[in-house]
Amino acid sequence: xxxxxxxxxxxxxxxxxxxxxxxxxxxxxxxxxxxxxxxxxxxxxxxxxxxxxxxxxxxxxxxxxxxxxxxxxxxxxxxxxxxxxxxxxxxxxxxxxxxxxxxxxxxxxxxxxxxxxxxxxxxxxxxxxxxxxxxxxxxxxxxxxxxxxxxxxxxxxxxxxxxxxxxxxxxxxxxxxxxxxxxxxxxxxxxxxxxxxxxxxxxxxxxxxxxxxxxxxxxxxxxxxxxxxxxxxxxxxxxxxxxxxxxxxxxxxxxxxxxxxxxxxxxxxxxxxxxxxxxxxxxxxxxxxxxxxxxxxxxxxxxxxxxxxxxxxxxxxxxxxxxxxxxxxxxxxxxxxxxxxxxxxxxxxxxxxxxxxxxxxxxxxxxxxxxxxxxxxxxxxxxxxxxxxx
Amino acid sequence: xxxxxxxxxxxxxxxxxxxxxxxxxxxxxxxxxxxxxxxxxxxxxxxxxxxxxxxxxxxxxxxxxxxxxxxxxxxxxxxxxxxxxxxxxxxxxxxxxxxxxxxxxxxxxxxxxxxxxxxxxxxxxxxxxxxxxxxxxxxxxxxxxxxxxxxxxxxxxxxxxxxxxxxxxxxxxxxxxxxxxxxxxxxxxxxxxxxxxxxxxxxxxxxxxxxxxxxxxxxxxxxxxxxxxxxxxxxxxxxxxxxxxxxxxxxxxxxxxxxxxxxxxxxxxxxxxxxxxxxxxxxxxxxxxxxxxxxxxxxxxxxxxxxxxxxxxxxxxxxxxxxxxxxxxxxxxxxxxxxxxxxxxxxxxxxxxxxxxxxxxxxxxxxxxxxxxxxxxxxxxxxxxxxxxxxxxxxxxxxxxxxxxxxxxxxxxxxxxxxxxxxxx
Lengths: 390, 425
Fold this sequence. Notes:
The complex is a heterodimer.
Chain A: H1 16-49, H2 79-112, H3 117-131, H4 135-147, E1 156-158, E2 162-165, E3 168-171, E4 173-176, H5 180-208, H6 214-233, E5 236-239, E6 242-244, E7 249-251, E8 254-257, H7 258-285, H8 288-296, H9 301-331, H10 335-338, H11 343-350, H12 356-385
Chain B: H1 17-25, H2 30-57, H3 61-64, H4 67-72, H5 80-100, H6 102-121, H7 128-135, H8 137-147, H9 151-154, H10 156-163, H11 169-175, H12 179-199, H13 217-244, H14 248-263, H15 266-275, H16 277-280, H17 289-314, H18 318-326, H19 331-346, H20 348-361, H21 373-382, H22 391-420
Helix pairs in contact in B: 5-6, 5-7, 5-8, 5-12, 6-7, 6-22, 13-14, 13-17, 13-20, 13-21, 14-17, 15-17, 17-19, 17-20, 18-19, 20-22, 21-22
């Protein structure tokens, strides 16, 4: 801040420096007194109504059931552990949701630009329908659909391995064997090598103009190493779900509960409609002249896409895309409405016996750290793509 | 142009007409044709199934028999006429906007009139006086239209012409009431009347106070979204100015408020208004949950509004500020008279967008126990053995209602964007 010179003879109420300080002090007083009033009121009510407060409860046994958990959970575990389990449920829904919504969003966005009139119209209808209906209505609708599926014993079975019924979706899944860690290590090395090879070949291609197929080479290195290690160590067995007992309880494999399915489908469809618009706008933002120029200097269609259109479109697409990821994560809190035990839903259940204010603070801080994480990624990307002075 | 150009040769037959259109857009290449056929088959299958379900299998009694619950919640039946009068006031406002702003507002007025006509004549259980009040909306739109002078006529130009020269000071004051100003005043008066009609006043016969908890259905979604936007605009402007200011304490306070609110889901704020906000008021002041929801939604919306306003003001060219400074305007004068008005004009489409998303978000007030449209639907399905299997009908109906509102608003927003020339100036 530049310090303005003090001019002799200017009265104090017209002195800019004094005025600025006065406004600062007044605003500080207003802000602090609002916060103080809020806190004092809350503190007084806490005392008057004998409401518990503090964080000691986190160590006690939570005694509440959590329907599904990524890591083993038992009601005798502590509140803290229960909240972590719930947080992981939020993370699980968000991560899967982000991946699927991006994939479908890109597909619909590209379909929107298709020269095929019918396809492009259908993509438009998809976008306009799903982004104009509140997510919670969509979630309740999908939940209704899931609940009207047949019972386990009468449910749909695909190839004796995939089960779809009113308790959810059951998929075959991998089970780690003795050789898992050596295999994981070799796969990680393979990925690192592939990244290195991709960069090296890309640079060679850019510098010499010689076609070097960096993507193909990277894929061959990573997948090849991983496959060879897979054959040597045999680290994974496939666990197929099976119906047990007369009343049909499915055991084994990966289980996605009905409410999780409804949440995932709702989140993915809702968010993908927004992502599709972002992708369309991004691709359209690259001028036609860019493509024409690339073609006229002799780049092939694929090379044009990879080196000219795509990098420029990404620049426009990524920042709003990351904000959509954040929205999806925040929207996953609607799980509370359809009975999926996410962070908000579990914290809300806990308020029956634990202090609401402390729980509220924990939930706020969790979501704020998630959004900080997203903005960190966004900022890193922005720094990465900044035009460098050559 | 003196030299007449030779007539252009006719285009090849395959690029014009229906055949040409089909060839270009659907069957341009082998791949394209395959895509068209596959998509058409899937689409036809979907539409046939949907149509037969909607017309034959679905049981819509769950909607028709409980229609008032979805629209106005538990609002007392004796007060329905008051809500009808509110609609009439809205009709007058729509008619006025139609006259003042023929493009986008006319469609809106038409759509509103069409919906009123449809509901007014639809054969379902409804008191004849309510039917009559709904049908009265059509003449009331016309009334609003007639009562408003055309924008050009209301300007002082016509008055000056009538006075044959410069206006005498007394008439100058009349000319201030140009069409936009009349509209703002009329909207304000209508708003106050609508609030009085909906909530009632104690002691006035016919206007018995309504328990705010009984407000519900679509009405509460619209009211919360509307008041959320209106109340968050001034707060948002304040926060945006604070964030732009060079005073560190003010700036940091505003940045923290905006980023914290934007970083958490609305449902956590509703969590707060359910468990903590009541503690900030003295216990004897038993505040109703409608107001708690209103406060929460306003807080939530103002953070987003602040970012909109900030964006709009950042888009005002620096030349404007420099010109203002060159003319000798002070800092606050530059902001209030130059940057802010232009910034606000920039964000009108963004405000409509925010209204749409806020309207969708009001469906979360179920979390603090309010019976909005969505919760009303959920209760009809899950709380009634009779309708337990009608979930699909209920949620599709609710989705359709929300969709019609949100889609028409975004359509109008695009029109406004075009009319304002945002991004073109």
